[in-house]
Design brief:
By secondary structure, this protein is mainly α. Among the domains are: 127 residues, Alpha Horseshoe (Serine Threonine Protein Phosphatase 5, Tetratricopeptide repeat); 80 residues. The protein has 11 helices and no strands.
Length: 310
């Protein structure tokens, strides 16, 4: 009896669950079928779009390689047209690379304004990768270096000089050169000196910086004598004991009259020499006179002999 009761209860429970499932299906079968259809359609659509994207990528890759080949063959006009087609119809990645090649072609042709415009358009495109945008911004700034003032260079490069920027070394180098070009030597030194010991700076960058730093040092040294020349000019002239006659003529007119002239002063030694010379001359004249007298006396003695008596 107990087994029969248990089996009856199980049959009743199963029947109740079956009825609940039937009622649930009858109520929600449309929603379940619709959700399943949406999931299936979504998966199918995703696969379709993925295949289409891959196909477009492969096509754009082939077109891009062909355009690069044209550029390598110096067929620039055809290459630019091919790159422009990719930039307009290709996927974002290849379109950005095509715009970059177009700007590079303008640079090679010497069309600086067109190249700057192409780089600026690439840098302002929100769909472009951030690394590529920073590179385009740096290239545009380097092309504007000769014509732009320091303020414009700051606006172009300040966002690239941060520690997290991948192009911080090149951006600081360009900004330092712009400061030197504008005559801001102290600011140029602050930007360029750290790059000389920066391990991320290449040898070529450091060599260029050394040349500019040498010019900065020369310019600073050239300013120092100019600033010290005025105090030296106001110092009074010192008298020179061994002044030349020309300098003696240009001496101040208010020199004291009681000061003896250097040309009128006779040294004691010179005076003694003159006295000794005069005494010697007098002695010589006296000796000559004595000799003449002696000669005259001898003549008189010989001229007056005794006369014999007749």
């Amino acid at each position: 009896m107990a087994d029969d009761g248990d089996s009856l209860l199980r049959e009743v429970d199963e029947e109740l669950r079956r009825e609940k499932m039937e009622r649930f299906w009858q109520r929600y079968n449309g929603l379940i079928l619709g959700a399943a259809a949406v999931v299936i359609a979504g998966v199918a659509g995703y696969k379709f779009l993925e295949n289409r994207r891959l196909s477009a990528t492969y096509t754009a890759g082939s077109q891009f390689n062909a355009a690069v080949e044209l550029a390598n063959q110096n067929k620039r006009e055809e290459a630019i047209k091919a790159f422009q087609n990719i930039a307009e119809t290709g996927p974002h990645g290849y379109a950005s690379l095509a715009k970059l090649h177009i700007a590079g072609a303008y640079v090679k042709d010497g069309k600086t304004a067109e190249a700057v415009a192409a780089f600026d358009a690439l840098a302002s495109d929100p769909s472009v990768d951030q690394l590529l945008k920073s590179f385009a911004q740096l290239q545009a700034a380097s092309l504007r270096m000769d014509q732009a003032d320091f303020t414009e260079m700051q606006n172009r490069l300040n966002s690239l000089t941060g520690d997290s920027s991948p192009y911080k070394v090149s951006a600081r180098e360009l900004l330092g050169f712009a400061a030197f070009k504008a005559g801001k030597l102290e600011e140029a030194r602050k930007l360029l000196e750290p790059l000389l010991i920066d391990p991320n700076a290449t040898r070529a960058i450091q060599d260029r910086i050394k040349v500019v730093m040498a010019e900065i040092t020369a310019a600073e040294l050239a300013k120092e004598p100019a600033s010290g020349a005025a105090p030296q000019a106001t110092e009074p002239a010192k008298p020179d004991a061994a002044a030349s006659p020309a300098s003696a003529q240009t001496a101040p007119a208010d020199k004291p009259e009681t000061e003896p002239a250097a040309t009128q002063t006779v040294p004691p030694a010179a005076a003694a020499g003159e006295d000794a010379g005069k005494a010697g001359d007098s002695k010589t004249e006296a000796d000559k006179a004595g000799a003449d007298k002696t000669g005259a006396g001898g003549t008189e003695e010989k001229a007056a002999p005794a006369t014999p008596a007749q």
